[in-house]
Specification:
Elements (H helix, E strand, L loop, with lengths): L7 H6 L3 H11 L10 H14 L5 H8 L2 H6 L10 H10 L2 H16 L4 H6 L2 E10 L24 E8 L4 E7 L7 H15 L6 E4 L6 H9 L3 E6 L5 E6 L8 E2 L2 E13 L4 E14 L20 E6 L6 H9 L2 H13 L10 H25 L3 H23 L19
Parallel strand pairs: 1-4, 4-5
Antiparallel strand pairs: 1-2, 2-3, 5-10, 6-8, 7-8, 8-9, 9-10
Helix pairs in contact: 2-7, 3-4, 3-13, 4-6, 6-13, 7-13, 13-14
Length: about 425
């Protein structure tokens, strides 16, 4: 792997073991745990998520009892677990250990970004993804659509709403109640939490059409949070002022700007226009699209030739607003990576606690891959594959050393962990 600039070993060594050990003590995650300590569970899930595209409790059992895993993370050879003990541990293990571990690792890894790159991390894409349990074993979840007519129970689903900054997830919420099926209920919980944490109000939140309630726009605005979203072209509003000038750049990439207005949105509850000003940018696609309504119009979103973008940031240019909204697609690519490559399309645990533990560990593993792919100029999938291949190579070298041989000197100290967690 001559073209690799930053190796997987270097990234794994950045995981702060001393801080994880302190967390183990402060959270008491290891209370009554004989084999599956918090740190062991941490590294078990990292290794398994890197090793396979889809993991299960039985696969976690195989991984833990495998000599490769034990050698790489310096775990005693006689340590042994079963899939049932993993299941029980996931359902009862202290969640705060994994929440705080995620925060620590995010801070550590985000330090690798330059000041210029950090500026891009202030663009926070917020969206949701649904995951369904095909075996109907979820202890909590909601159903979507009609019940099956053959007497079968409808599949339960869980909703994940995340705020993604292009490097990692700043905040994630897990929803298992039907009321959160609406994005107007789920997204504000994430956005408003982050707005309160962002004391400098540097973040710009990018949201899709799912968030459309005037009350939610006002709630973000009142907290001094800045956002860019999209509204329906049929949205009722009154123009207060036009921001279009003779020298306004109307080229928005594949869109062409035709209006940039300060508006008041109609309040359906009060039956009048709201007094809070927003900015609505109206643009058309340069290449007209086929807008013929499909026969199954209830299942396919209507195609339009116009896009209405809304923001409460009056200092951005129309092109900056359009570019910010275009970058919203990054979170869709990230969701695809999580589901296709990090086992996020199904549930390893069906308990609420276990689901959240797996969520945090999936996001931590995604951070490791993100740094590796970024430093080595790779894609998500190949980055994850090469990361694990390097781990296999080092296990082979470590086994040579442990058996009295000489490993490749250019790799230096190949042991990843100096102590047994």
């Amino acid at each position: 792997m001559k073209d690799v600039k930053v190796h997987a070993k270097d990234i794994l060594r950045m995981i702060p073991d001393e801080e994880l050990a302190k967390l183990s003590s402060s959270t008491k995650v290891d209370y009554c745990a004989k084999v599956l300590s918090g740190e062991r569970m941490f590294y078990l899930l990292v290794f398994a998520l890197l090793a396979a595209d889809q993991i299960s409790q039985r696969k976690l059992e195989v991984v833990f009892n495998n000599s490769m895993f034990k050698t790489l993370f310096n775990i005693s050879a006689d340590a042994h677990v079963t899939h049932s003990s993993i299941s029980t541990r996931l359902s009862k293990i202290d969640l705060s250990f994994f929440e705080k571990a995620y925060e620590i690792i995010y801070r550590r890894f985000s330090q690798l970004y330059t000041e210029e790159e950090i500026m891009h991390l202030y663009l926070i894409r917020v969206d949701s993804s649904m995951v369904a349990e095909c075996c109907n074993r979820l202890k909590a979840g909601f159903t979507v659509g009609k019940k099956p007519g053959d007497g079968r129970q409808p599949r339960k689903q869980i909703k994940y709403t995340m705020a993604y900054d292009g490097f990692a997830v700043r905040l994630a919420e897990v929803f298992n109640e039907a009321v959160y099926l609406s994005e107007d209920m789920a997204i504000p919980k994430v956005v408003l939490k982050l707005v309160k944490k962002d004391s400098r109000h540097a973040n710009l939140y990018v949201i899709d059409r799912g968030l459309s309630s005037l009350d939610n726009f006002n709630a973000i605005n009142e907290c001094d949070g800045k956002f860019v979203g999209r509204i329906k072209t049929s949205r009722n509003m009154e123009v207060v002022e036009s921001l279009m000038k003779e020298d306004t750049d109307t080229d928005l990439g594949n869109l062409e700007l035709y209006e940039d207005n300060i508006v008041h949105l109609y309040d359906n509850e009060e039956k009048k226009y709201s007094e809070t000003p927003y900015r609505v940018i109206k643009a058309r696609f340069k290449q007209p699209r086929d807008t013929t309504r499909p026969a199954n119009k209830g299942k396919v979103r209507r195609v339009e030739n116009e896009v209405f973008l809304i923001t409460n940031d009056f200092g951005l240019t129309p092109k900056q607003v359009a570019e910010a909204y275009r970058r919203r697609w990054d979170i869709e690519v990230f969701f695809k990576f999580l589901k296709q490559n990090l086992s996020f399309s199904h549930f390893v645990s069906t308990s609420e606690n276990g689901i959240k533990v797996i969520l945090y560990m999936t996001l931590i593993t995604a951070m490791l891959v993100m740094i590796y792919k970024r430093e080595n100029g790779l894609g998500f999938s190949i980055g994850k594959f090469m990361f694990f291949m390097e781990m296999q190579d080092w296990v082979c070298q470590l086994m040579v050393v442990l058996n009295g041989g000489n490993a490749d000197k250019q790799n230096g100290d190949i042991r990843l962990k100096a102590r047994i967690p």
